[in-house]
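Late entry, written up from scratch paper. The run itself happened at the end of the previous shift, but nothing got recorded in the book at the time, so transcribing now.
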Amino acid sequence: MKKLELVFIHLAASSHLTASIQFANRLLDQEKNLSITVLIVTPPQTDLDPLTKLIVSSNDRIRFTIIPPAITNHFSLFTSSSISLEMLANMGFESHKPQVEQVVYGISSIISS
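Output as recorded:
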């Protein structure tokens, strides 16, 4: 059977990370050939909550990859000008795009080899 890889790109708060991991775990229960990589593109938390730690430690088919914060400090633009929060978020997403593409390309290269 063919191995499947699902990539979650996590951009939200830590409570959403927990919900995403719970959802990923349910998907893994349904599909034995599936592996999941969670890309965390916001500044990394200092620690995962206990439930997330438990789920991740009990399933070796869930991996995390931290995408480091972008060099540009978009938050300073928000505090010093009339830029909208939506525009600030879009700028942040766009600044991480090359890093996310590189990681996803690396995952796809490993799977296809």
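The mean pLDDT is 76.
(Scratch paper discarded after transcription.)
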